[in-house]
Amino acid sequence: MNGRRNPQSPVVAALPGLLWLLSAGCGGGSTGPGPNDPVLAKANPSGDGQSGPAGTALAEPLRVMVTQGGAPLGGRSVAWTVLATGGSANPASSVTGADGVATTSVTLPPFAATSQVSAASTGANGSPLRFSVSSTGATSSATVRVVDNEFQPENLQISTGGSVTFQWLNGAGPHNVTPVGANTIPASSNPAPPGTHDAPYSFSTTFPTSGTFAFFCGVHGTPSSGMRGSVTVVP
Q1: Residue 42 to residue 52: CA distance in whole angstroms
Q2: Confidence tier at 51 by pLDDT (50, 70, 90)
Q3: Are 130 and 108 in contact (CB under 8 A)?
Q4: Are 86 and 109 in contact (CB under 8 A)?
Q5: Would the CATH topology of 36-137 be identical to that of 138-235?
Q6: What is the per-residue pLDDT across 117-155, written as a single tens digit (0 to 9) for each?
Q7: What does the pLDDT look like over 70-103, one tens digit per residue?
Q8: What does the alpha-carbon distance between residue 161 and residue 149 come to, in Å, rounded to a whole number?
Q9: What is the CATH number of domain 36-137?
Q10: pTM of the full predicted structure?
Q11: CB atoms within 10 A of CB 82
Q12: How far apart are CA 19 and CA 11, in angstroms?
C-alpha cells in the first residue's frame, strides 16, 4: 500500500446532509398545531341551537371555553359576530374567566331566519367556531348579506308580498343570485339574471306568492352545493 486515501465521491459526501433533510421532511418540520396551543370549543351548556321571536334577545347566553393542555385558560379574548343584518352580540368581545369560559348575549335579526354566530379567539385551535340560532315570525322584509362563499343567512322566511334585499358586503365578489328553475325567484334586472357583480351592489325583490324559492351563486355554488340559499314565503 502506498498510504494514499481514496477521495469520497460527491454523492457519498452528501449523504449525511440528504439523510437529515429526509428525516426533517418526514414529520420533523411539521407546522401543525402543537399539544400546548390554546383550544377553543363550545362550553357545556353552550346555548347553541336556541330560538326566539325575530328582533328579541335569546333567553340564554352563548358560551365558549378556552383550554390549554386540557386545563381552563383565563384571560383569552373572544370576538363574537352575528352573521345576519340587524343581529348583534353584547358584548362583541369578552374575556375568559378563571374557568376558561367566555359568554355573550345575542339579539336576533329582525326577520325570521336561521342565522350563524361566529366566536373567534386569535391563535386558538378550533377558531373560529359557529353557533346556529333561529328567529321566528314572518316579517314583510329581510336582508341577505352576500359575502365570499356564502349567503348570510342562507335560509329565511317572509310574509306574502314581502321583499328581500340582497346586499354585497365590502370586498365581496364576483357573485350572483341565480334562481333554481325558471321564474321561481325574481332577481337582478341590471344586468339580467344571473347578473354577476362585485361589491358595492345590492338589489331588492318582492315575493307576491307563497312557496319556497331557492337560489344559488353560479360562480361559487350549484342548486345542491356550495353557495346557495332559500326564501320561504308564507301567507
Answers
A1: 20
A2: very high
A3: no
A4: yes
A5: yes
A6: 999 999 999 999 999 999 999 999 999 999 999 999 999
A7: 999 999 999 999 999 999 999 999 999 999 999 9
A8: 29
A9: 2.60.40.10
A10: 0.81
A11: 23
A12: 12
Q: What is the DSSP letter of 197?
A: B
Domain ranges of the chain: 36-137, 138-235
CA distance 28 to 129: 29
Residue type, 68: Q
Q: Domain 138-235 falls in which CATH fold?
A: Immunoglobulin-like (2.60.40)
Is the pLDDT at 29 greater than 90? The verdict is no
Question: In this predicted structure, what is the pLDDT of residue 36?
Answer: 85
Mean pLDDT over the full length of the chain? 86
Q: Which of 98, 96, 95, 91 is nearest to 61 (CA)?
A: 91
Query: What is the percent of the chain where pLDDT is above 70?
Result: 80
Cell numbers placing 109: 335579526
The string of DSSP letters for 72-116 reads E--S-EEEEEESSTT-EEESSEEE--TTSEEEEEEEPPSSEEEEE
Whether 158 has a pLDDT exceeding 50, the answer reads yes
CA–CA separation, 38 and 50 (whole Å) = 27
β-pairing, 51-53 vs 129-136, is: parallel
Return the DSSP state at 170: T
Q: Which residue has the cell 341590471?
A: 190
Establish whether the linkage from the previous residue to 128 is cis, with ω within 30° of 0: yes
Report d(CA 85, CA 139) in Å as an integer.
14
